[in-house]
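Weekly structure sync, notes
Attendees: PL (lead), two postdocs, one rotation student
Agenda item 3: pending single-chain targets
PL asked that the sequence for the first pending target be pasted directly into the notes so everyone works from the same version. It is reproduced below exactly as submitted, 233 residues in total.
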Amino acid sequence: MDVQKMQKELEHLLAEVHWIQQKLKNLPEENISCERDKQYIRWYLISEGKRNYLPRSQEKLAKKCLKIAPPHTRRIDKLLSPDSSYHNLLLSAVFNDEVSWSTTDYQRSNNYPEKLIHNTYVGILVRSKSEVLIANALFSKQIPFRYEACLQLGSHTVYPDFTIRHPVTKKIYYWEHLGMMGEEGYLDNALTKIRRYCRNNIYPDGNLILTYESRQTPLDSELVLHIIEHYFS
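Predicted structure, written out during the meeting:
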């Protein structure tokens, strides 16, 4: 491992330590356990070795007792997986007041549904592993988004990969991941798509985020995190 990579790893570890320290200041002594009972998920409050059932009416207390792992640790992958007993509670706790905008019904693309095969933290199926990377990074950073939501550009209907709402300013951004730039036909279509955005006053480096990929140059996870920090920090 070279010096630059070691420095980045150190920064990640220090950030994790700081994250944990800040969370510990506000956490109650109790823990919560989410357990699956057939088709139901039940919450139990664990305190001084005693286990008490926690009804849904106590959701605020459940969120406070939820010891959420830092977003960049491996444990969060299991906790946030759609089949996890903790998934729904974590989803609500992380997105907070933005969850209604992200999860409310909206018109989505119905093109090639058989290609929606990759699952994400929020339980949305996407078309590629790179889109999983983007979706999970947005979720972990608590950035609300919609996947392939309908957008009218003049006389054309398009479905941006991600429609994102800034958690503070509420400004809308569109993120297109162009994942097959090494193929001539795909490249032509991508350029047409970008021109269409520009003609409707949606510009790259403004409210249009573009990432690119080819077989030789896959999408880099650190680039995704850098983009999110740049636009939404």
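Discussion points:
- Helices lie at 3-26, 59-65, 75-80, 87-95, 99-103, 129-140, 184-199, 221-232.
- The beta strands are 31-37, 40-47, 50-54, 145-147, 151-153, 156-158, 162-165, 172-178, 208-212.
Action: rotation student to compare against the earlier draft before next sync.
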